[in-house]
Design goal:
alpha+beta, Alpha-Beta Plaits, globular, Dimeric_a/b-barrel, YCII, YCII-related domain-containing protein
């Protein structure tokens, strides 16, 4: 099953720095196991553009849609047997301690 993992900042990171995970090691391990299909960091929110259509009119604005201190800074597309495995993969990601990770199942539109 595919899961999109949003990598987000958080205002309350873990203060225990013991055994802090290494992102390069996390990527290498999950790539080697075939659990990480792709992933990347995102540009700063100052580079974001929000697009909406209301009453047939295109509305384009600079920046993210929501004003918040917690933002999405990256993503990983995972292939896991189930949610339990996806949680274990997320648990080992460095941002689980610095920020937060949101897992969402990918729903196929192919029917």
């Amino acid at each position: 099953m595919k899961y999109l993992m949003f990598v987000c900042t958080d205002g309350e990171p873990d203060t225990d720095r013991a055994d802090w995970p290494d992102i390069e090691a996390w990527v290498a391990e999950n790539d080697a196991r075939g659990r990480r299909l792709t992933g990347d960091a995102l540009a700063d929110t100052t580079a974001a553009t929000t697009v909406r259509v209301r009453n047939g009119e295109l509305l384009v604005s600079d920046g993210p849609f929501a004003e918040t201190k917690e933002v999405i800074v990256g993503f990983d597309l995972l292939e896991c047997a189930d949610l339990d495995e996806a949680i274990e993969v997320a648990r080992a990601h460095p941002m689980a301690r610095q920020g937060r990770l949101e897992l969402r199942p990918v729903v196929s539109l192919d029917g």
